[in-house]
Amino acid sequence: MTSLGDLAARGDLRGVRERLDELDVTEIVEIVAAELGRRGGGAAASLFRSLPKDLAIAVFEALEPPLQGDLVGRLRDETEIKVLLEGLDPDDRAELLEELPAKVTKRLLSGLSPGERSMTAALLGFPAGSVGRRMSPEVATVPETVTVGEALERVRREGDRAETIYLVPVVGEGRRLVGVVSLRRLLVTGRDVPVRDVCAEPVSVLPEDGEETAARTVRENGLIALPVVDHERRLLGVFTVDDAMRALERAESEDSARGGGTEPLRRPYLSAGVLRVVRSRIGWLLGLVVGATLTVTVLDSFEDALEQVVALALFVPLLIGTAGNAGAQAATTVVRAITTDDLRLRDLGRVVGRELATGFLLGAGLAVVGFGPAWWFVGLDIAVVLALTVVAICMLATGTGAAVPLVARAAGVDPAVVSAPFITTFVDATGLIIYFTTATLLLGL
Question: With 231 labelled, which of 5, 22, 92, 301 sits at a CA distance of 20 to 30 A?
Answer without folding.
Answer: 92
